[in-house]
Design brief:
mainly alpha; two-stranded antiparallel ribbon; globular
Length: 419
């Protein structure tokens, strides 16, 4: 029993923080998810035929954003909406989320968030209790994670929990199925899932990956042919490189700088953003050579680190999975002090953003009757900075730290190949 007290304390502290903020804050995606879920009940298994942003007005969505997520997200949001059918309210340009939906959707995100934390602890079987607890705390008490699941509210804990569960299984059909399901649920998870699979390839794992990615969409395709293509269209509609305003919410250094310069001068800097694939190729190429030696966990972490360092559009919620993989990787035996140090420095830099941005915005903008105590608590720990130059510098520094971390890790693995 005493051994369980440290992890229980981490979970209790994390849950208390989440329970305080979750019902009284809401990001724009929480409002949009209500519209998506309503469309699921309207169209059933033909939902993906209406999942493009061009259908937003007809479907009554708050914003013209498409639904690029996989069938598991459809099912989970539909269940949450069944429990919380309150109507989204529009007052002029303001959009308010119903309180029952805020609670139901956040409960979903926090449930998977907590599952991910427990899986991180369980993945350290054989480690000292303090090491396993430290890994759990690095994830579950991380401000980036708390922000994503409990304050803004986003789906990222779902694929994160699936991917961490897959890593714990250490190969086989079901590990592959979880990797495929995670990648299909939110496509930004795909690099981590693919490289985890590449690190321990087998026919059973490959078959599981294909099944996890494709089988869930079969009912949609069978009931409404063309659903798979409609899903792909929705996903591709948000993949075309472009400026990414506002810069306070852009986390690729090149894109953030190009967007800032374009807004400031009116000049054309889109060429820099469109060249993102060159940096990505350079970041992923070494991992292709060392993935087998590095193993699934290190490969998943480095692949996702490369993704967040190079992809042209990185949203803050993408860092939730990075926090989970980094926490496991930093705590894992065999990782050098230099690697732990650079990974920890990058993770600390990621966690800094909620203390810069006025996060209390999410306690007001979509909540019709804001709780000022919650908003004040968020303001108390925030510098409330809105100067775009601060976020340009932050984004560039974050990207630079990621590149340093990749270089330090690759150096070790290449030294093992070429002593």
């Amino acid at each position: 029993m005493p051994r369980l007290l440290p992890p229980a304390a981490v979970l209790a502290a994390g849950l208390l923080i989440r329970a305080y903020f979750a019902p009284l804050t809401a990001g724009s995606d929480v409002v949009q998810f209500a519209g998506f879920a309503d469309s699921v009940y309207r169209h059933g298994l033909c939902f993906y035929k209406y999942a493009g942003g061009e259908n937003a007005e007809a479907e009554g969505w708050a914003y013209p954003w498409p639904f690029p997520y996989g069938p598991l997200a459809v099912a989970l949001l539909a269940v949450a909406r069944l429990l919380a059918p309150g109507a989204v309210e529009k007052v002029g340009e303001w959009v308010y989320a119903p309180s029952d939906w805020i609670v139901a959707s956040k409960a979903l995100f926090i449930a998977f968030d907590t599952a991910a934390a427990v899986l991180i602890y369980a993945s350290g079987a054989g480690w000292p209790t303090w090491r396993r607890t430290a890994a759990m705390a690095l994830y579950y008490l991380n401000p980036a994670v708390i922000y994503t699941s409990a304050i803004y509210g986003m789906l990222d804990p779902v694929p994160a929990a699936l991917l961490i569960a897959a890593l714990r299984l250490r190969g086989g059909f079901w590990a592959g199925a979880l990797l495929g399901l995670a990648a299909a649920t939110k496509l930004n998870v795909a690099p981590a899932a693919l490289f985890a699979a590449l690190a321990s390839p087998s026919l059973r794992l490959a078959a599981g990956f294909a099944a996890g990615a494709l089988v869930p969409v079969v009912p949609f395709e069978a009931a409404c042919p063309g659903s798979l293509l409609a899903w792909a269209h929705a996903a591709l509609s948000v993949a075309s490189p472009d400026y990414n305003p506002p810069v306070v919410y852009s986390f690729n250094g090149v894109t953030t700088l190009a967007t800032y310069l374009h807004e400031k001068t009116g000049g054309d800097y889109l060429w820099a953003i469109r060249a993102w694939w060159i940096a990505a190729a350079a970041a992923y190429a070494p991992l292709l050579l060392v993935a087998r030696r590095a193993g699934p966990l290190a490969s998943a972490y480095l692949a996702y680190l490369a993704y967040t360092a190079t992809y042209w559009r990185v949203n803050y919620q993408y860092f939730l999975l990075l926090a989970g993989l980094a926490a496991l990787h930093i705590a894992a035996p065999g990782v050098s002090r230099a690697e732990k140090a650079v990974s920890l420095a990058h993770l600390a830099a990621v966690a800094l953003w909620p203390f810069l941005y006025p996060v209390s915005w999410w306690a007001r903008v979509h909540v019709k009757e804001p709780n000022e105590a919650v908003a004040t608590a968020l303001d108390a720990v925030s510098l409330k900075l809105l100067d775009p130059e601060v976020y340009v510098a932050y984004s560039l520094a974050l990207m630079a730290l990621a590149y340093v971390a990749l270089a330090v890790h690759y150096r070790r693995w290449f030294k093992r190949i070429n002593p």
